[in-house]
Amino acid sequence: MIHPTQPKMLDSAALRQVFPILNQQINGHPLAFLDSAASSQRPQQVIDALSDYAQRYHANVHRGVYQLSEAATYAYEQAREKVARFINATCAEEIVFTRNTTEAVNLVAYAWGDAHLHTGDHILLSIMEHHSNIVPWQMLAQRRGAVLDYMPLDNKGRLRLDTLDTLLTERTKIVAVTHQSNVLGTVNPVQELARRAHAVGAVLLLDGAQSVPHSADQCADAGGRLCGLQWAQNVWPHRNRGAVGAAGAASSDAPVSGRRLDDQCG
């Protein structure tokens, strides 16, 4: 008889020891931090890495020929390669560091959207999107005279894929959806969405801010040509502009034009 493999139990006590901030009591009780969706606490490994950078090779990246700058640049590019492997991108050149997911979406809306959308073109979102994946497209639609469409949900909080028959047309240029809803927890069938979007020549942008801690490799595997994700939920310093502290990344194999992000929104 073949016995099923039992799932390995999480050792929560050992995990707590990795996070120094949890080694304290609040109101006489061990600290239980429940706001990780906004700012996860940092494990000792991250604290050590930041300290090591600050003490040994803090310098400009890609802008110096002296030893410290070369060391900082090497560490920066090694981080890019690690992120590429983490989300299963095809190469490190697909990774663009940004401050957060909101900036990543804005980057696509400006650099890709302004170059490819024209009057009467359509942008397809869903009604479960975080405002960071709504407002940049509203602004893009205003700038370019495009039309915003929204996929509805069923009574179980799932996307109504049957509506794609009418929502997706040759005028649809980009589909921007969350991989996992920050409110409902719904995990969307992004591979199917990618297949349907590509069938009409549209680009898929995948908001992976919520899903990357659980299924990072699916970000690239899902077929999205543009994938925004964020470290704030992944125990990395939020909004840190240092060489090893970039808080977000955009993965892209879609061509974009370089332009300044004058007014970010979301």
In short:
By secondary structure, the protein is an alpha/beta fold. The chain is built from nine helices and nine strands.
Secondary structure elements and pairings:
Blueprint: H1 12-18, E1 25-26, E2 29-30, H2 44-56, H3 67-86, E3 95-98, H4 101-116, E4 122-126, H5 135-144, E5 147-151, H6 164-167, E6 172-178, H7 190-199, E7 203-207, H8 212-215, H9 218-221, E8 226-230, E9 248-252
Helix pairs in contact: 4-5
Question: Can you tell me about this structure?
Answer:
Mean pLDDT is 83; it is low at 231-249. This protein has helices at residues 12-18, 44-56, 67-86, 101-116, 135-144, 164-167, 190-199, 212-215, 218-221, and strands at 25-26, 29-30, 95-98, 122-126, 147-151, 172-178, 203-207, 226-230, 248-252. It has one domain (52-252): Type I PLP-dependent aspartate aminotransferase-like (Major domain) (Aspartate Aminotransferase, domain 2). The termini are far apart. The protein contains nine helices and nine strands. The radius of gyration is 20 Å and the shape is globular. With 266 residues, it is of the alpha/beta class. The chain has a seven-stranded mixed sheet with strand order 3-9-8-7-6-4-5, with helices on both faces. A two-stranded antiparallel sheet has the order 1-2.
